[in-house]
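Q: I'm writing a short explainer about Cell wall-binding repeat-containing protein for a general audience and would like to include a description of its predicted shape. Could you first generate the structure from this sequence?
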Amino acid sequence: MNRPALRRTLAPAALVLGLAATSLGVAGPASAAPAAGFETLRPVCSAQLPIAHPGCAAGTSYRGAPLPDGTANQVVQLSGVDRFATAAAIAEHGFPEADVAVLVSGEDRHLVDALSAAPLARSLAAPVLLGTRDAVPTATAAYLQQHRVRAVLLVGGADALGGATAERLRALGVTSVARVAGADRYETSRDLVALMPPAAHGWVASGEDDHLVDALAASGPAARLAEPLLLVADGDPLPAAAALTARGVTSTTVTGGPEGVAPEALAPLPAPQRAAGEDRYGTAAELAVESVDRGLDAEDLLFAPGVTGHLVDALAAGPLGRATLLVGDVESSFDVVEAWFDTFGSGRVTAVGAVEIDG
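A: Of course. Here's the predicted structure. Afterward I'll give you a sentence or two in plain language.
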């Protein structure tokens, strides 16, 4: 497929930054044959998975998100009163049946710990939910209880999700709790990737605080394609390269420009190719086009906040597995959105968190 040129015209909807409330739906049991009109999720568990996944043991299939109905300009809003409720609303949409969840910190300073979690979560047919160091927020607890989730994988160390969080999960009926946490963000990322199924292609992003947004934009495509998303350190890229090779990766999409992942960090990666724009919004668009080139539906699009302070919404939306555009309050963001609609048309657009669509 030739990569289309994005160009600007009038978009069919206006985008604003706001926050709308939504409520959780009613849980349904997992099923052997999910209903027509919904995604079917089948977990793939490695022998190294530290939690007991009921679905892997029983060969269970799960009902996932509704499939697009083919209607033009369809809008789905997934938002809550706070970031925890937004993550729960995303989980209810994408994972209405679940035995397992992945829990990450909802605090901005720990955002980096979970950047590689979305592909693993989707491979487990599990949503990404948010917690805090010492508590399980109300919306997170409600999802776990309503769905009778029995296994939770914590991502990050005790400073991100402490011992009290694990105890609270057990009080909610979770019987299998385990943690993935390395000595630093890069080792945590490699440990998550090691639990992924093998893949021929991988995605690499900077682990530096100023460039984390690039990994968020790549998480949806990586999750849909069941491919690893790995953080690479400019000063020591060899462990990342080894982790990708161990999963069978032979080609790599590098997210963002050289100010994020330095040229010298590319050399050891398997067949690296950059996807980068002039800013975070342009980079997200390049990653989205790359994902369409590799098989994702261009008319089933996710809008996530690209503004610092709301990036966590994109983290929770990654397991939905959709091409993702970041939305902000700058002209370049709107230019990218308008160009996308002009090039690909508009089918279903799912807006999460602080992004609202005013049609």
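A: For your explainer, you could say: Residues 1-29 have pLDDT under 50 and may be disordered.
Q: Perfect, that's easy to follow.
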